[in-house]
């Protein structure tokens, strides 16, 4: 084991850096999904579309600013502005007009409704952005690369992926944890998550909390897409790819668990990264192997709480 | 099978006064036969000139492959419009009916049957997906409907089956991968290690098999540094790029395409991977305009055929220039290889009708006669010509070049181009590609064509 590490230690370090960056990107999407599930108890498949629309909107805004000859650094605030706009414009109508009406229906029906919404939003993307890949990579280019020593060699990493993505993911995690635990609005969300009826009985406007939570979740999905947009090419289907992985993170974490989502994203990110280095054939399957392994031991997820079933 | 003519099938169904039991039975049988075979008045063996030629076109209108499918559809719309403005084929106008390959092969086969049975199309162009081509070649036999495999790459279709109604109007995966390999061996013969970074699905795996088998035959002993097959549809290749940076293979082979290739090129460029390894990217032509200057000079790129809007020696320069201009004017981008493949399918269809009619002294051909006309057919492409062999496979040259930058375009173009003769790089009739590739000898490299530089 020691000999293996002395031989492969540097590679493990590289894999860890890659895994961290990947985990940050995955967490940004999964945390919104988890938050929404906690309050609404709906597994929102359209979350993937919100991710994609956030990405497309951020790329379009970045390209627009660049075409107007404005300073390139404006591409960074453009990421956040685009995500906020998507969350604000799409979140409330989806919650008020669709999900609220489905609140008392069977979970499978809710799932189908969000799936239908996902299909509609996928077509909307094609209508607005076409099918050709869309890229706006100014945020990555502006920060350049950082050379990480690798024996006698160096490996260039994008500073954006090395610092910005994990930094924002960490800030989101800490900020969200603080908000949920230390602010009145956050505690109201936790109350509705824990017991909707009891929260309402204590005077909390559960409908308003639900609306705000869904809007925040939608904005987080859009932010995930916006932050990923400088590093990827946005194409039709990107939302579907993302939502599947996000489900794996959420299921591994335990539904409704914010910190759990961070740990699960880290596990899956590192697992996938190590697979690329050690056994590339396992890269595709490793997130789901981790999910399966966790669910076999803890069916409620890493941090989920087993619910008492009334009989 | 008994030939069903429209009169025989439908006459009993419209009696003048009373309906006899026998008449009703005959009518039912007639309609049943019609439904089973998909025959209609416009597609009968009698060879009557139809009011219009309906062509079913399968292409990707959704999902990641729509980066090729939608340009293919746009090219079809442009070409059908132009053909109709010129009077159609022998005075018969054409109408394309598009179907989406996006939902998968089961949906596609259902749509294929619908096109034949309900839409009564005379021909079908199918498709981009190799799985769809493998499924529709037997269907074309069953339904007796001429089918042009207009873009799919799998070499297996005509190596594993014999068909009289299915034909491919371009090359297949074997020449498309062998040509860049030969170009690599000729232009950078001293490489000692290679890595692959392909999408994890049939094309990614098959193209690597072809490349590796050819490499083992032509330059044994090259070390395979890594075999990376990220998930189909992945958008982040950071980990793969890091791995390749650390391994420093001399050559990186990638048949990745679409948004994934764009992302791989950009991520590799950002992190200086292009400075460490020579890339061999057989499908890069379709990404050139989108990735701009991110693709540096000095890397090997292909176009899935002998076509490119800046082809160094087109057969008819005015034709290529007109198509490029018309397409760009209408869709605001340069045409990519799938538009050339669509041109070839339309060109082959027109040539086959003309050949079949000439053989009948000007009379309209029936389905079997039209299908037979494709065999041995030589038809013009936008840059040269393509011949369909006796097994149904198109013989098309392959244009490969090295990327370079010029002030005229804000994206990389090709220089030092070789147009590989189709006969040299296509698996002979009756042989399997992998078996044939194993028989290649290094002296093959002495017979390669000369390179042609980029001409501004």
UniProtKB/TrEMBL annotation, chain A:
GO biological process, one term: amino acid transport
Listed InterPro entries: ABC_transp_permease, BCAA_transport_permease
Keyword Transferase: no
Transmembrane segments: 20-43, 50-67, 73-92, 160-180, 284-306
CC terms in the record's Gene Ontology section: plasma membrane
Keyword Hydrolase: no
Recorded GO MF terms: transmembrane transporter activity
Membrane topology type: Multi-pass membrane protein
Cellular compartments annotated: Cell membrane
Keyword tags: Amino-acid transport, Cell membrane, Membrane, Transmembrane, Transmembrane helix, Transport
Pfam families hit by this protein: BPD_transp_2
Organism domain of life: Bacteria
Family recorded in the similarity comment: Belongs to the binding-protein-dependent transport system permease family. LivHM subfamily.
Name the UniProt record assigns to this protein: Branched-chain amino acid ABC transporter permease
């Amino acid at each position: 084991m020691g000999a293996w590490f002395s031989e492969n230690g540097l590679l493990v370090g590289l894999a860890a850096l890659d895994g961290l960056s990947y985990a940050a990107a995955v967490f940004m999407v999964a945390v919104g999904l988890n938050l929404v599930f906690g309050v609404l108890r709906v597994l929102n498949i359209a979350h993937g579309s919100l991710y994609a629309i956030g990405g497309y909107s951020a790329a379009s805004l970045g390209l627009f600013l660049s075409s107007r000859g404005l300073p390139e650094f404006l591409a960074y605030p453009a990421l956040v502005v685009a995500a906020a706009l998507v969350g604000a414009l799409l979140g409330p109508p989806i919650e008020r007009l669709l999900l609220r009406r489905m609140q008392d229906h069977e979970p499978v029906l809710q799932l189908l409704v969000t799936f239908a919404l996902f299909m509609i939003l996928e077509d909307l993307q094609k209508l607005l952005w076409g099918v050709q890949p869309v890229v706006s990579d100014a945020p990555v280019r502006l920060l350049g690369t950082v050379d990480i020593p690798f024996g006698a060699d160096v490996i260039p990493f994008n500073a954006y992926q090395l610092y910005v993505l994990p930094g924002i993911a960490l800030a989101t995690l800490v900020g969200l944890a603080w908000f949920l635990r230390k602010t009145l609005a956050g505690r109201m969300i936790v109350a509705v998550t824990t017991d909707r009826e009891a929260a309402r009985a204590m005077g909390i406007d559960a409908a308003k909390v639900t609306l705000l939570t869904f809007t925040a979740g939608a904005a987080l999905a859009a932010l995930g897409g916006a932050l990923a947009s400088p590093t990827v090419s946005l194409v039709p289907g990107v939302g579907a790819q993302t939502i599947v992985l996000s489900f794996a993170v959420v299921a591994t974490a335990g539904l409704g668990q914010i910190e759990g989502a961070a740990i699960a994203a880290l596990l899956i990110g590192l697992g996938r990264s190590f697979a690329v280095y050690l056994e590339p054939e396992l890269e595709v399957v490793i997130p789901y192997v981790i999910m399966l392994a966790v669910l076999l031991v803890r069916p409620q997820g890493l941090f989920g709480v087993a619910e008492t079933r009334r009989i | 099978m008994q030939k069903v003519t429209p009169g025989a099938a439908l006459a009993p169904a419209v009696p003048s006064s009373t309906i006899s039991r026998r008449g009703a039975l005959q009518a039912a049988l007639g309609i049943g036969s019609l439904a089973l075979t998909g025959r209609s008045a416009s597609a009968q063996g009698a060879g009557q000139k139809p009011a219009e030629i309906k062509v079913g076109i399968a292409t990707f209108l959704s999902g990641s492959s729509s980066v090729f499918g939608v340009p293919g559809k746009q090219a079809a719309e442009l070409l059908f419009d132009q053909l109709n403005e010129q009077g159609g084929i022998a005075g018969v106008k054409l109408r394309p009916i598009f179907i989406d390959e996006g939902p998968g092969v089961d949906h596609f086969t259902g749509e294929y049957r619908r096109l034949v049975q309900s839409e009564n199309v005379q021909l079908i162009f199918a498709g981009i997906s190799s799985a769809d081509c493998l499924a529709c070649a037997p269907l074309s036999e069953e339904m007796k409907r001429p089918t042009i495999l207009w873009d799919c790459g799998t070499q297996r279709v005509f190596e594993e089956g014999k068909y009289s109604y299915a034909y491919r109007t371009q090359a297949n995966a074997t020449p498309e991968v062998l040509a860049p390999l030969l170009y690599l061996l000729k232009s950078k013969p001293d490489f000692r290690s290679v890595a692959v970074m392909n999408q994890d699905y049939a094309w990614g795996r098959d193209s690597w098999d072809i490349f590796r088998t050819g490499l083992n035959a032509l330059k044994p002993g090259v070390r395979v540094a890594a075999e990376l097959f990220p998930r189909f549809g992945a958008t982040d290749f950071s980990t793969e790029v890091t791995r390749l940076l650390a391994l420093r293979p001399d050559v990186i082979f990638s048949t990745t395409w679409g948004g994934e290739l764009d992302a791989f090129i950009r991520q590799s460029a950002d992190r200086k991977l292009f400075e460490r390894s020579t890339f061999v990217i057989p499908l890069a032509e379709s990404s050139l305009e989108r990735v701009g200057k991110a693709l540096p000079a000095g890397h090997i790129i292909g176009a899935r055929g002998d076509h490119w809007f800046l082809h160094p020696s087109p057969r008819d320069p005015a034709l290529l220039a007109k198509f490029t201009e018309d397409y760009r004017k209408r869709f605001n981008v340069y045409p990519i290889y799938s538009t050339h493949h669509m041109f070839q399918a339309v060109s082959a269809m027109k040539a086959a009708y003309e050949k079949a009619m000439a053989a009948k002294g000007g009379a309209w051909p029936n389905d079997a006669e039209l299908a037979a006309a494709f065999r041995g057919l030589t038809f013009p492409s936008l840059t040269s010509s393509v011949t369909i062999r006796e097994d149904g496979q198109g013989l098309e040259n392959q244009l490969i070049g090295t990327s370079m930058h010029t002030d005229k375009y804000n994206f990389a173009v090709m220089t030092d181009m070789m147009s590989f003769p189709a006969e040299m790089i296509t698996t002979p009739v009756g042989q399997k590609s992998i078996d044939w590739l194993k028989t290649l000898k290094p002296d093959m490299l002495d017979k390669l064509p000369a390179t042609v530089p980029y001409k501004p």
